[in-house]
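#help-structures
NK: newbie question, is this the right format to request a structure? protein is GNAT family N-acetyltransferase
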Amino acid sequence: MESQEAPSAGYAEVHIVSASPEDARRVAEVLRRCFSATEQRSYPANGEGGTCLEPTVDTTRAAEPARSWLESSRSAEHTGQEIGRD
C-alpha cells in the first residue's frame, strides 16, 4: 500500500474495496448518512471488475448515530476502556 499524507484534523480517508460497484456504493451511502463526506473517488480495484471508492468524511460534522458513537468513544479514550467493549 502506498504511503499517503494524513488528512486534516477532524477528517478521515475511507478506503472501500468491493467486487461489485453497487456494494461499494451502498457502503459509501451509509457513510454519507452518518458523516458529511466528499464525493468519493472511484476506480477499478483489480482486473476482474472490482471497485474501490475513497470518500473523505468530516468527523466533526457527524449525524446520529455516528455522533453518539464518536462522543462515547472519546470518553472511553480518557478512561482507558477498550472502545466497543462492555
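mod (FA): yep, format's fine, and the C-alpha cells are attached above. The CA atoms of residues 14 and 26 lie 14 Å apart.
NK: thank you!
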